Amino acid sequence: MALSPEESGRLADLLDEHADGLVARWAELVGAGLQGRMSRPELERQTRDLQKGFQQAFANGARDLSDEEATELRAQLGELSSNRARQGFSANETAISMFAFKDAVLGVLGDTSDVQTLRDFVSFSTFVDRAALFTFDSYVRVREALIADQAEQLLELSTPVVKLWEGVVAVPLVGTLDSARAQVVMERLLQTLVDTGSPYAIIDITGVPAVDTQVAQHILKTVVAARLMGADCIISGIRPQIAQTIVALGIEFGDIATKSSLADALRYVLGKKSYRVVTAKRTEH
Amino acid sequence: MSEESRQIPVTTDQDVVRVRQLVRTVAVDAKLSLVDQTKLVTAASELARNTLVYGGGGTVEVSRVRNEIRAGIRIVFADQGPGIADLDLALTDGYTTGGGLGLGLSGARRLVDDFTIDTAPGEGTTISITKWCR
């Protein structure tokens, strides 16, 4: 239900006339809902801007939130919800703070039986509802963008390739190894092999909770790819329960060296490189 | 006799992860040994992925069961996909139509105590597996 031009005109006048009272009351209502998580001056500044935004939109003759005249207001609402989303407020709190505007306006109108005033208020109320839904929408959009960013960061974070020794790199895998992560792991490992010129790579699966055929296939492919580049791969961190499961599943690692711990794998590689690990004899001075 | 059961839909890769987590939680609650937990979780992972990849999505139901002697966990994977035409072939180690290792179905059968499969071409596939507490 869109506002009539007269209605938006009257609303603009109303908001203008009671500007200070409305802002104070609105900020008070919102402040009570946010329970001191936002400072009062900041809140008042925000509500003043918003109240001005609504007033401007009505004064320009906006009849609906999607109108061109309300572009400025929409931008304001979008910014408000993205700020709230980043500050950790819930979508509910963000929308409720919009609804509080209605209470503030109702307070200004007071007890009235004037039909026109009541009609105006109903139209205004619909407009605010739309605005609240709009903030809800933008809030969710911002949150989704945040989550997508974090998921990407997590993917990057969770697949480090570390240098263990001269010529030995290791990939400690933690968590679920799905196709996307397997791809990242493989790319990282192969690139690190080139960059460091390492002839040995250790893939440690201590942190992988379950090794099913898909995980095994991803690991096998990574090993084969590394071999094609001339590097030897060792799989370490095979716990007893994983070993038994792999046997029951019938997965064969062929001639790929496997070790139960990363330490064993490193010792094995050092042995191949003709290093010997011995306890140093301390000479007392 | 079924004591409690939970059903989850499987329509994305994320759901396969969810199935794994649910099965692990139930397996820990049922006091399965660590090896049996891992075997059951792995079997569930294989079959849930089959439901998704070959069955085009379906449902997984995890329930605690009990017979005269023992308690256990039963998991039922159901889809309305194309079904399996040649079951013997599908259960052969190394046979795959999807580019995998060809060990999922046959391997899962070796990982659990009871394994029943109900399928016909064009009528979907229902697989029920049970692991008993030792």
UniProtKB/TrEMBL annotation, chain A:
Q: Where is the STAS domain?
A: 158-269
Q: Enumerate the UniProt keywords alphabetically.
A: Phosphoprotein
Organism's domain of life? Bacteria
Q: By its UniProt entry, which SUPFAM superfamilies does this protein fall under?
A: SpoIIaa-like (SSF52091)
Write down the InterPro entries for this protein, in alphabetical order.
Bact_StressResp_Reg, RsbRD_N_dom, STAS_dom, STAS_dom_sf
Q: Name one Pfam family in it.
A: RsbRD_N
User: CDD domains recorded for this chain?
Assistant: STAS_RsbR_RsbS_like
Q: What is this protein called?
A: Polyvinylalcohol dehydrogenase
Organism, by scientific name, is Actinoplanes cyaneus
Gene behind this protein: rsbR
UniProtKB/TrEMBL annotation, chain B:
Q: Which domain of life is it from?
A: Bacteria
Q: What positions does the domain Histidine kinase/HSP90-like ATPase occupy?
A: 35-134
Give one Pfam family: HATPase_c
Q: What is this protein called?
A: Anti-sigma regulatory factor
**What species is this protein from?**
Actinoplanes cyaneus
InterPro entries reported for this sequence: HATPase_C_sf, HATPase_dom
